[in-house]
Amino acid sequence: MSRLKINPWVDVWYNPKTTIKSVLKYNPKYMVLPMAGLLGIALLSLLFESKDDIVGGSSFIGSSFVAALVGIGVLFILSYLFSMTGKWMGGKSTSEKFRLAMVWSGVPTIASLILFIPLFFSMNSELLGIIGLTTIIKWALILWSIYLFISMISELENFSMLRSVFHIILVGIIITIPILFVKILIGTSSIL
C-alpha cells in the first residue's frame, strides 16, 4: 500500500479528481464506514433543522445512531446501483470505488455538522433566524458535495461531466420507480 501524499480532507474541496485517484491508490476502503455514518447524521441534522417545532438534543442523539447505520446501508445500496448503471453506460467502476467517491464527495456535507453544534445546545425560538441561515449554508455545502460527486464519477468512469449528471439521474429514476409503485399500491389498497 502506498503512502497518501495529499490531505484528502482539504484537497477534495478544490481538486476532487486528484483526491479520488490518490485515496483510491492509497486504500479504496479508507474512512468509508465512519464517513458514511457521519453523512447519515449530517443529513439527519438538516431534517431536524427543518422542523417547525425544534426537538431537543436527546432526541437528536438517539436518532443519530440510527442515522449513521442508515447512512452506511444506503451507501452500499447506492454504490451497487451506480456500479450497475455505470456498466450500462460503458463505465467500469466497481461498487467499492463508488462508495469511496460518495463518502469523499460528502466531506462538505459532513463539515456542515459544525453548524449544528450551536443549535444543538440551545434550542429556543431566539435562534430561528440562525436556523434559517445555517440551513442555507448547509444546502450550499450539499450542492458542493453533489458537484464533487459528479467530478469523481467523471474521473472514475472516464465520463464527461454531463454524462456523469445523466448517470446520477438514471440512478434517481431507478430509485423513484419502486417508491412510486409502492405509493400507488398503498393508495389503491386504502380505497378498497
Describe the model.
This protein has nine helices and no strands. It has one domain (8-191). It is mostly helical and 192 residues long. The chain is globular, with a radius of gyration of 18 Å. Helix 4 crosses helix 9 (161-191).
Distance between the termini: 61 Å
Mean pLDDT: 86
Classify the helix fraction into a percent range: over 70%
In quaternary terms, these chains amount to: single chain
How many domains make up the coordinates? 1
Query: Helical element count?
Result: 9
- Write down the secondary-structure element order: HHHHHHHHH
**Outline type:** globular
- Percent strand equals under 5%
Indicate the low-confidence ranges by residue numbers.
none
Which class do the helix and strand fractions yield? mainly alpha
Largest sheet: none
Radius of gyration: 18 Å
Number of strands: 0
Tell me the layout of helices and strands.
Layout (H helix, E strand, L loop, with lengths): L7 H4 L4 H11 L5 H19 L6 H32 L6 H11 L1 H5 L1 H9 L6 H30 L3 H31 L1
Features:
192 residues, mainly alpha, globular
Q: In brief, what are we looking at here?
A:
By secondary structure, this protein is mainly alpha-helical. The protein contains 9 helices and no strands.
